[in-house]
Specification:
Rossmann fold, alpha/beta
Length: 355
């Protein structure tokens, strides 16, 4: 009995690609059908997926993290993959990569037109968005790139909180969020084409945990200054140390020497946020640190960052982080403790040192 034909998956790489994601996907896809039997029964099963590293040229290229990638073939030599996965790209969120990757964009569109499913990992969605295949559809990318994607590609419905989105005709366009959510994308594709049982086997074999909370709990809510307004920058530095003050917005206005109306206009222009929303953002970020590193009650954390009403703090935290403060602590507190290692000295409690 002959083995069924292998699923053909192209892993699209560019000089901005990071090698870890490419080779991680390569290994996981190669494992499908093969490694469960190898580990459990001592005999490798039939490999079900044939991954290929594909680039504009088959010549070796140095990835963004310095590791050399050797493509198996060029775009021209691999016209009909079943699936194309765009790896993450080491570029700044505001960088326009479309102008120097026309060949990759055209090949992606041609593959999709021919019936292929196209997917992106992390910031690779910025290249996928340049094809127009995400227009009118929901998509996600790394949380730090979501705002830039929404601005550059306004027809894309960017979902910053989700770790995985399948959209488009027949849900043949798949985007994953930041970091290790490429695992979710790869397992999703394996489940779609090879069945849920094979995806479950690989998840168990490699101890892969689905990002069921999405990526919002991992995101930093703080935004960098968008311009070069030195006055607003000084106010941001000031509030970073005094976020728990009573009426902090009034304090920043007084520091700036501007009228209230002018200050609010310039603050929004510089940060993309109102002064009050910015204060909330700084407070929430500080509360996350306290939840990770201390055993303070939720009420005490709220008061420490400037909220007298614990209920208001809980509602605000859940709105911004997508989980409750208690859920956040359960998610990240044990990780923080584990990373300190056995016998590590616990961090000091807030207020242990004089200001």
């Amino acid at each position: 009995m002959t083995d069924p034909p292998k699923l053909k998956i192209a892993l699209l790489v560019t000089p901005e690609t990071t090698a870890s994601t490419v080779y991680g996907m390569y290994d996981l896809f190669c494992s499908a059908g093969r490694d469960w039997d190898f580990v459990v029964n001592g005999r490798p099963g039939a490999q079900r997926i044939e991954p290929r590293i594909v680039a504009a040229s088959a010549a070796a290229l140095k990835a963004a993290n310095g590791i050399w990638l050797k493509p198996d073939c060029s775009f021209a030599d691999y016209p009909n993959p079943d699936v194309v996965c765009v790896s993450d790209l080491f570029v700044t969120p505001d960088e326009d990569i479309a102008s120097h990757h026309a060949a990759a964009i055209n090949w992606l569109k041609a593959c999709h037109t021919a019936g292929a499913t196209v997917a992106s990992a992390c910031s690779g969605a910025m290249l996928l968005a340049a094809t127009g295949l995400l227009d009118g559809s929901e998509a996600t990318t790394h949380w730090a790139y979501c705002e830039a994607m929404a601005k550059r590609y306004p027809r894309v419905k960017v979902s910053a909180s989700r770790a995985l989105v399948a959209s488009g005709d027949g849900q043949r366009v798949v985007t994953s969020g930041g970091g290790s959510t490429w695992y979710d994308m790869a397992l999703f594709l394996i489940a779609r084409f090879l069945g849920q049982e094979e995806a479950m086997r690989l998840a168990k074999l490699y101890l892969l945990d689905w990002h069921r909370l999405g990526q919002q709990p991992f995101a930093s809510l703080a935004r960098r200054v968008q311009g070069d307004d030195a006055v607003i920058g000084t106010c941001q530095e000031w509030i970073a140390e005094r976020y728990a003050n009573t009426n902090p917005v009034a304090g920043m206005i007084a520091l700036s020497g501007l009228t209230e109306r002018t200050f609010k206009r310039r603050f929004r222009a510089a940060t993309g946020m109102s002064p009050l929303d910015y204060v909330h953002t700084v407070r929430i970020e500080e509360s996350k640190q306290l939840l990770e590193t201390t055993e303070m009650s939720i009420e005490a954390v709220a008061q420490e960052v400037g909220y007298e009403d614990g209920s208001f703090f809980r509602r605000l935290f859940r709105r911004e982080v997508a989980v409750t403060p208690a859920q956040y602590r359960r998610q990240f507190g044990p990780l923080r403790k584990a990373l300190r290692g056995p016998g590590a000295v616990p961090p000091p409690s807030p207020g242990a040192f004089p200001p």
